[in-house]
Amino acid sequence: MAISAQDVNKLRQMTGAGMMDCKKALSEADGDFDAAIDILRKKGQKVSASRSDRATSEGAVFIATNADATKATLLALGCETDFVAKNEAFQALGQRVLNTAVVNKPETSGELLTIHVEGRTIQDHLTDLMGKIGEKIEVVAYESVEGDKVATYTHSNGKVGVLVALKNVNGGNVTEIGKDVAMHIAAMRPVAVDKDQVDPGTVQREIEIGKEQARAEGKPEAMVEKIAMGKLNKFYKDSTLLNQEFVKDNTKTVAQILDSVQKGLTVSAFKRIQIG
Questions:
Q1: What is the pLDDT of residues 170-205, one digit of tens each?
Q2: Lower Cβ count inside 10 Å, N or C end of the chain?
């Protein structure tokens, strides 16, 4: 299929790879951007880790925590421009939708949109504001976590929100470490709490990429599997929360930092949402 210069430039912006490499990858992948990214990675190209956020644009995150900090809810409301994201009516609507979610506890964002407030659904309220400001507005994400204690973090730009559930608190004061771990998650973007929670499809994908990289480097076939597993272990270290080096002390992992604060303290779940 014909690959446009616009698509090539888009992939270059997403990955940082060269123009010709991007064009070849897109051609090989028949225009599929995710497949093209994998092709670039298999050939050893440096690829940006932020591509998972490329479909979002502007908006804001809204977070609410219950009275004893054992549950928190996060809502991400998306729009087209930063100007609208800062608009008073947009901010008020985001808070209103969040409050509705906290009270009604819907299972999904789709269910949230059907809840009636003052005789109209949440979707109706979104549509009303869209008509007034002339931009698309939608619920980008709706998440909640529960734990012994839950810490939260909202980045200063209002477009990154984190919820993190702590386990084995045992009555200890974990407010500070909880916030630090939430900030770590915002900065380091882990894909899972620990390696056992990584999606099997992601694991297989990393193994295959590791094998292709080893072959591209001319390694003997007998060593390819071992090299791939070594790369997988590095992926776990770099990309799973408890195994990452803690941003405020890179001599320790997040798991070690938590355990040093209180024996057995760990993370049971987290959610990280970014707009833009």
A1: 999 999 999 999 999 999 999 999 999 999 999 999
A2: N
DSSP state letters, the chain? ----HHHHHHHHHHH---HHHHHHHHHHTTT-HHHHHHHHHHTT----GGGGGTT--EEEEEEEE-TTSSEEEEEEEEES-HHHHT-HHHHHHHHHHHHHHHHH--SSHHHHHT-EETTEEHHHHHHHHHHHH-S--EEEEEEEEESSEEEEEE-TTS-EEEEEEEE--TT---HHHHHHHHHHHHHH--SBSSGGGS-HHHHHHHHHHHHHHHHHTT--HHHHHHHHHHHHHHHHHHHBGGGSEETTEEEEEHHHHHHHHSTT-EEEEEEEEE--
Q: Which domains does the chain have, with CATH numbers?
A: 1-52 (1.10.8.10), 58-193+266-274 (3.30.479.20)
Q: Can you give the pLDDT at residue 170?
A: 94
Q: Report whether pLDDT(97) > 80.
A: yes
Which pLDDT tens digit goes with each residue over 31-71? 998 898 888 777 655 554 433 333 448 999 999 999 999 99
